[in-house]
Structures are given as C-alpha cells and as structure tokens.
Amino acid sequence: MIKIAMVEDDLELADVLTQYLKQYNIEVTNYEEPFLALSSLKFNKYDLIILDLTLPGMDGLDVCKLIVKDYNIPIIISSARSDITDKVTALQLGADDYLPKPYDPRELEVRIKTILRRFNSNHEDTNSTQEKVKLFNLDIEKREITKNGEYLKLTAAEYEVLSLMLKREGFIISREEIFDNADLLNSDFESSGSLAVIINRIRHKIEDNPKEPKYLHTIRGMGYKFTNE
Hints:
It comes from Arcobacter arenosus. By secondary structure, the protein is of the alpha/beta class. The chain folds into two domains: about 120 residues, Rossmann fold, CATH 3.40.50; about 90 residues, Arc Repressor Mutant, subunit A (Orthogonal Bundle), CATH 1.10.10.10. The chain contains nine helices and eleven strands. The strands form three sheets. Strands 2-1-3-4-5 form a five-stranded parallel sheet, sandwiched between helices. Strands 6-7-8 form a three-stranded antiparallel sheet, covered by helices on one side. It has a three-stranded antiparallel sheet with strand order 9-11-10. The chain is elongated.
C-alpha cells in the first residue's frame, strides 16, 4: 500500500481525496497543522507528501523547504494560489510537481503513481552496487549548472530553460510549461521562435554533436525531454 502524508487545512477536500485514493490502494493521513505534519515525519515513513501552500501558522513554501532539507521524499504541491512565482519557487525548492486547484482527483492519482515510479526507480539505482553519478548537476543557490564537474557558461535565459529540464529529468516538458516557468521568456519569444534558438544554443554547449543530441531531445508535437546519463 502507498502511504501518503497530506498537509491540507481544507478538511472537506482532504476527506474527498482520502476516500477517492483509498480505492487505488493509497492510504492518506491528513494533517491540518503543518507543525504536526513535520513532527509526524520524524516517526512515520511516507512514500509521498501532498502539500498545500496556504496553511495556518506556516507558509507551505517554508514547509516544503524544511522537508526537502531533512527528508528524501517526493512532494506534490496542491494549491489554489495562482501566482506563477509560488509555482517557480516551489519547484526550485525541490517540489516534484505543482497541481493547481481545483483539479480532478483522477489526475492526482495518476501524478502520484508517475512520480513514485520515477522516484523508486532512481532509489533502486542509488542502492545498486555501483551508484550512478549524474553527468549534469544543478546548484540552485549559486544558479550554476555543471557537466562532469565543469561549469557551463550560460545566459540567464539558457540557465532558466536548462535548469527546468534538469528538474523535470525524464519527463516530457511542453513549450507551454517552459514559458510558464521561465520568467525571462514571454509571448514575444514564443511567436518569434526564439525558444528553439535557445534550445539550439544549449545543445551546442552540452552535446558532443548538437545535430544528434544525447541529452536534450525534441519530442515531436509534445515538447522536450532531458536525460542525464
């Protein structure tokens, strides 16, 4: 059974989600108070956390920061806050997904299982006899990206796009999601095709052969996918 800790002060929503997910063998324990949730993590093992941002006593972004600092557990942000800054900050802090309210519980169930498949796969790799070392590494505080330990010289726009790729490693990212999460990109970039130009510049800086990319792939009709191996 999948065990989830939910931090949600809307008790009616928490009950609806709890009952819905139960039919998919997902057990949810909800905490209305963020301090209770943080205390529970010290004594209970959960597979994933669903975290609201507007909480009594502590902002959800601060809760996210504390969880990422002390625990290796995936986090889905579930929030009615529509400010793009909140979404960007949550993902930069280490949240694995951001699901804006209102949403269909079926989407939450699918996202939970998708994230856990990826997380468990990565966890198995790190526990193997020979641990894989990531080729690319992102340092959010320094706003730096390295390849094989060497600093990549990136423009601000290139950094925004490539850092998003690294955070979404293994997932297909649509053009729309890139524009939603990259503050330096706007509709003018989209209409002029400059995103493709930025992607091409990034490939020239990270690929051995930009015409046959091994890391930053174009998925026709869907977007882009980054592999870090």
